[in-house]
Amino acid sequence: MLTSAQLVDWERDGFVVLPGAVDPAACDELREHVIAKLAAADPSVDGGLTVFDTTSQDHAQEEYFLTSGDVVRWFLEDGAVVDGELTRPLELAVNKLGHAMHDLDPVFDRFSRTPMLAELAADVGLRDPLLLQSMYIFKQPDIGGEVTCHCDHTFLWTEPQSVIGFWFAIEDATIDNGCLWAAPGHHREPARTRLRRQGAGTVMEVLDPSPWPVDDLVPLEAEKGTMVVLHGTLPHWSAPNTSTKSRHAYTLHLIDGTATYPADNWLQRRPSMPLRGFDR
Ligand SMILES: O=C(O)CCC(=O)C(=O)O
Asked: What is the Å distance from ligand 1's center to 165 Cα?
C-alpha cells in the first residue's frame, strides 16, 4: 500500500497522511448510520448522560468508561448536559462512541476490515494485527471538546510498544473545526505517561515529567476520505471545535498479537470476545 517515499515519511515523522484512502461514499454511509442510531436511541438509559471527561474522578463516570472496552457506548460532550438534562438532541451532544463497534456493528466491521487496511497494517510492521479499539469522534459544532496532547501507547500499552492508530476523516477536518495536530519525529521518544487500572479506578503513571512538545505540533488538515496512520508513541492533539461545522472522524487502534497486553490496561475484554484481525 505505502510507497517507498511514504515509508520514509513514516519512519522520519511517525505518521503518514493518505488523502483519498477511503471512498467518500463509505464515509457518508458510516456517518448516516451513526446519526440514525443515535436519533433512535434513548438518552435516559443507564449511564446515557455520562460526559467524556478524562480528568474527572467521578466513580460512576469511571466505571462507565472502564467497562466500555467490549461494548458500544456513547460519551457526551462537556457542555451538552446541564442540571442532568441534555441541552440538544443526542446526535448533536455526543463526544464519541466507543470502543468495540468494529466487532459488534456490521457497518463498522465492514469499514474497518478491508484488504487495503490489512496491507497498510503489514506495511507499518504489524505481524499479527489485532483490532483493539474503535472510536467515532464527533467534534460537535460549538462544544466539540479538546483532545489533550497524548500518545496512544499511554492508553493501549503493549510490551514491546506496538499500537498503531488508523484515523479517518469522515468529514473535512480543518484548523477551524479542530483537525488533528501531530509532532513530527517525536515518536522516537518514549511515552511520558501510562494509564493503569488500580483498584476500581485508574492512575496516570508519570514515566517522564518533561512537557509534551506542543510547540512542534503541525496541523493535519484532512479532506473527507483522508486517512492518517499514527505511530503509538507519536504525540498528537486536537483543539476544541468552536466553529459551526462538525468534524466527524473514525479511529481504529491496532496492536500486534505477538506483543504482551498487560492485565492492568484500562481496556479489557470478556474472554468470550477475543480480539480479531482483518478476517471477516
Ligand atoms: O480525532 C481526534 O481529535 C483525536 C483522535 C485521537 O487522539 C486518536 O485517534 O488517537
From this structure: 9
- Residue 269 located in a structural domain: no
User: Ligand 1: residues whose CB is within 6 Å?
Assistant: 137, 147, 152, 165, 167, 180, 236, 238, 249, 251
Residue 272 placed within a domain: no
Q: What value does the CA radius of gyration of the chain take, rounded to a whole number of Å?
A: 18
> What whole-number distance in Å separates Cα of residue 205 and Cα of residue 193?
5
Structure confidence by residue, pLDDT tens digits, 268-280: 999 999 999 999 8
Q: Over the stretch 156-174, which tens digit does the pLDDT of each residue have? A: 999 999 999 999 999 999 9
Determine the residue of 147, 171, 221 to mutate for testing ligand 1's pocket, defined as the one with the most ligand atoms within 8 A of the Cβ atom. Answer: 147
Domain that holds residue 144: 4-256
Between the CA of 29 and the centroid of ligand 1 the distance, in Å, is 21
- Asked if the structure places residue 261 within a domain, the reply is no
**CATH number for the domain including 16?**
2.60.120.620
CB atoms near residue 159 (< 10 Å): 9
pLDDT at 47 over 70: no
Nearest to 274 by CA among 81, 168, 131: 131
